[in-house]
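This part of the workshop introduces the protein records we will be handling. An example says more than a description, so a record of this kind follows.
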Amino acid sequence: MSRRSTYNVTVGCDLVIEARTWRVEEVSDDGFQVKCAEDASYTCLGFEYIDRAIGDGSCTVVTPAMAEKRKQLLQLTGGFERVQQLSPFQQAVIRAKLAVLNAMKCLEAEGHKLTQRYLDQGPVRSALRRIAIDETGAASLFTTVHDNGEAVTIPVPKGRTLQKYRQLLEQFDGNPVVLLVRDHLKGPRGDKARKICDLGERFIAAVVEGYLAVSQPKAAVVFRDTMESFPIAPDDFARNFKFPSLTTVRNRIRQLGSTVVQVGRLGRRAAANRLRSGTSSIPAVGFGEYVETDQCLLSIFVDASGQARSEFWKKEDQEKFPERGIGEPRDGERVAKRYWLSLVLDVATRMILGWHLSETATAEATKAALRMAMRSKERKKRLYGCELEPAPAVGFTELRSDNGTAVRNKDVMAALAGLNVMVRLGRAYEAADKPYVERLFGTTDLQVLNRLPGYAGPRPGALPGADPMKEAVLTHDELYAALTKFFIDKYPARPHRGTELHGATPIQKMAQVVEKYGAIAPPCAEQRRLHLGEVKKLSVTSEGVLPFKIPYNSRDLQLWANTAPSRMVTVYLDPDNLAQVTVEPIGSCETLTADLSMTNLRHTNLPNALRLLKEASLLHPESAAVTDDDVGAVVTREGLQASLSDRARVERGYDRVTDYEGFATALGNVAARPSAFDASSRPAGSISSFMVVDEGPTSPGTAAAPAQLGISEVVAPSSAPLANRPTNCSRRMPRLPPKRPSKPSSGASRRASSDVFRHR
């Protein structure tokens, strides 16, 4: 016996499954042979599948009789199937009619014969009204408010109409929607209701087509130009053709809908970004699981000199208003710039992980923001006086960015690949691919930059009464301070309404996520140096290596150098952490580390270290060496200066490796060596107590030329044990003779280096 369906599904029935309608053409032993009503495709649906779908409610069976009755119902009501689809006025009328029909049943129960003539009598209809009110208990059953706001009284129909209402209810299985007022079906409908001829419709279509252009012309202008050039045949002219009015054209444009109008006048790309619907999906649940990064040119002009100068551009302004001048005026225009802000945002918690200001959106700026996200920001909190805790250091699993060159370059992509971070690049001009960091830029613009002098507005011409370039009085450091306090103290403490936040602040969400799922561990210091740091190829001497003229040395490095055939190595330096460098000998599989020889530079960064070395060299211009004590003296002096917080916050123009190297050129003839002192004589914490510098770069100023420093050679620090060094701190190391241009043999060079090493 062949398998059959449990339910009575016959030929001609419609099966509605997942919003698709299938017409049963044949019932075979294999199942139902069906045809799709949308694309006319054929397939076979098994009996078990149909039984299961009908049982769980995912399949609706529509018999031919049901389809015909539904068609008649829609034709009668004008498209309405349920009472809930009607207006409040229509629903009130239906309730009154149903109450009258129930009152008719009461009269029949009393023995009255309800003919049409009997129901036409006034006393009978009054009795029906009274019984309906008594049965429903609603005194205002026959009074309601029309859709136009007027109060109306619902009359009791006469006998013929009441009999028709009873027949309609019986015909459509008691569906009360058939009792609606059918005023909306009066008059001609469809093409018969048109009052504009075909030529007028073509004219309206021509005007609408000209209006839906990306140049965004005015409707009146397009209407006038189209009317002047629209061709009219002699027959139409003889029939006294008249153009539709501008009001008719505008009404037709409104009927198109705002979506069609914006697609036509804004373009597909801009309309998609503006009209794209949101999502309720949860993109990430773990801290560091999914981050977004992007760059934005800030809408604020900043005084690029970093100094407080006159608020006027020219001398005549200072002479005209002498009481309002600040400092000495400057000839010509002031240097006002806009800076790029690079952000890294954690999507699961909305915590801001890293930020960086730069003159251009480059790979170096992106790497600086990524390094900040992967390190502690506790020192930045203390430096700027923030009250809340910043986001902790965290690693990434997935990073999403746009198609810009700041991320889509070999340096950043190679660094992220080395850190095992999956990168997903969004489409060009598709802001919805990374909406969270894009929203953060808008919030920063409205809540931070809008309140600062020099603000230029969100778009060109937005502030016609402002002169942002003339009002550019903020320095780069002051702008960075305002952004830092907002990113640490204000933004994480404000409620968010996004998916899975439900009014929680980013700080609360981070605590919840970390407690439930944990956080991704950040990369170690060596991984940061290898993948996000600066790379230099140097030669190892007896003094170690000097990347950017900063001395590094270790015992393992010297032991390798004494036996290696070639002393060329690759040095990896983290610009934000100068304590150690990673050294990879070229042609060898070893990986070595070297420690910073100058302890006073341990708690600073690369640009600030170069500035400290430069200023330390100016303490004794006649000397050819800079010791750790000299650097410590500069740090102590700056620690006592009130302007330290303004000088040591952030670096403006040192975002590229070439800038580091150019600044280090001035130190090319400075002998940087550790001071000769007993470590036990320095109290604990005396170095870090004065080093109140940020992990971010600082403004080093203009580097002096070697001739101005009065120094002629480079001498690296000694790697000899501390006990073998001189104990007199005031003693200066002797100047070594300059290197010969010709390179000696490897054995002679090694012996000479060993002699110098032992001498020191």
